[in-house]
Amino acid sequence: MTARNQSLIELDGIRKSFGGNEVLKGISLNVAKGEAVCIIGPSGSGKSTILRCINGLIPIDEGFVRVGKHRVHEIRHERGMRPLRRQVAMVFQQYNLFPHRTALENVMMAPVQVLKHDPGEVRERAIALMAKVRLAGKESSYPGELSGGQQQRVAIARALAMQPEIILFDEVTAALDPETVKDVLTTIRELVEEGMTCLLVTHEMRFAREVADRVCFTDHGLIVESAPPAALFDTPQDPRTREFLSQVL
Amino acid sequence: MLTDTRYQRRKRLALLAILGAAIAWIAFDALLGGSAEWARVISRLPLLLTGSGPAWSIQGGFAFNVLMGMLSMAIATLLGLLMGIALLARNAWLRRGAFMIMNFLRNSPWIVLLFAMLYLLPHRVELFGTTLSFSPFFKAVVGLSLPTAANFAEIIRGAVGSVHSGQWESARSLGYGTAQIYRQVILPQALRRMIPGWMNLYALLMIATALATVTGVQEVVTLLRTTLAMESETALVYFYLTVLLMFFLYCYPIALLARRLENRTKGDAI
């Protein structure tokens, strides 16, 4: 396992409650640069919350979160989060594209408006990214005119346009029709192969096994087991992992 | 889909039947001597519309209602916008204050607010040696714009709140600040949803301008109650019908257009 001080993402003992419900009960996780880590586990086990703690969308109650040089748990203001968010991109289950803007504008908006990059240069980059996610020709379509899988690939292009070091994927295929899942997974696989640091919450076990360097199984707000995919899927150590895998595989 | 077109056909038939009955009644009534009353109404129509007999200068009448409605709406839009921003403010005190004012105004009968303006606003104020006098027209406009502003503020709050929370999440995760999120992401979507409500509010306000008669402004109802009061009782029925029709013809198309826009924006909620 990666040495603690070299890892790009470092979570140590994070706890988070919503109301009286403790969703995270001490999560510790390290992700090295270029690593692809999948988080699997039953619904409601806090998987999505872990991702939102990393880019500061959800403030944690207790624990330590570091991304690169940013100590996320120490940032108190929304304004202070912004340098972090430039480093960490996120792709959501519900795509969350901006419906009043075209696909290309969705990809271009943040680099121009947040990073203040030159619009001409961003435009070229955005067109190249649209081609990369195999959506060349759909630049002027509005999100409402695209299928779920296409919208999700625009969302990935939008994340990539920020030139992030890390991308967080939050159950990005869970809302998709089965036939469009493959295109999205292919796009993510290419990113992993290019060495992008990816943290994925997913229900696609086959995909997790194929692309991940490491798979974490979460249950009831804890990481129960963490291992390379072959080990975790073939010889799970914890009975809860075994039970979960027997249900989904 | 099939039942939908059948419903539409039946609706159209029902509307035609109502229209036909109305025309039949008017024709029947005209044969029984109603035409003389209608002639009376038509001869006084310029007065009803502009408040001046033959000379076409605007001194009151329905034109005043339209004018009051537009002015009040302009003021209410501005005030409502400020109040709406305060309702969405991060500062809890500002938000609570705006919330209280909005609820107070929204739950007051409009006619009471109009009476209140009548007695609260002075007839004239001395300001640096010049005398400003508050006309009944001015008081009516202030009295009408206050509850309208409160309703508009609530429309703004509702429209902003109706934008899916995922939009906030994704904009924040892209590094946008709060002001930028409002400007680039939330408001463009909320604005589309505000317009139908804003138009409906205008139609409502237009109808409420008839209440301004309590301030003594020479609008159409005041005319009916004063200048036209010496018409015969039968003729007055026709006058009131005509005024009802005026409001209907002015407000209904606005309501129709608002509904159409509303249906169009329904689809883009993601």
UniProtKB/TrEMBL annotation, chain A:
Keywords: Amino-acid transport, ATP-binding, Cell membrane, Membrane, Nucleotide-binding, Transport. The lineage of its organism: Bacteria, Pseudomonadati, Pseudomonadota, Gammaproteobacteria, Oceanospirillales. GO terms for cellular component: plasma membrane. Residues 9-245 form the ABC transporter domain. InterPro entries: AAA+_ATPase, ABC_ATPase_HisP-typ, ABC_transporter-like_ATP-bd, ABC_transporter-like_CS, MetN_ABC_transporter-like, P-loop_NTPase. CDD domains: ABC_HisP_GlnQ. One of its GO terms (molecular function) is ABC-type amino acid transporter activity. This is Peptide ABC transporter ATP-binding protein. It is found in: Cell inner membrane. Gene3D superfamilies: P-loop containing nucleotide triphosphate hydrolases. It is a peripheral membrane protein. SUPFAM superfamilies: P-loop containing nucleoside triphosphate hydrolases (SSF52540). Belongs to the ABC transporter superfamily.
UniProtKB/TrEMBL annotation, chain B:
One of its GO terms (molecular function) is transmembrane transporter activity. One of its GO terms (cellular component) is ATP-binding cassette (ABC) transporter complex. The chain crosses the membrane at residues 12-36, 56-89, 101-121, 127-147, 199-217, 237-258. GO terms for biological process: amino acid transport. Pfam families: BPD_transp_1 (PF00528). CDD domains: TM_PBP2. Residues 62-258 form the ABC transmembrane type-1 domain. It is a multi-pass membrane protein. Belongs to the binding-protein-dependent transport system permease family. HisMQ subfamily. This is Polar amino acid ABC transporter permease.
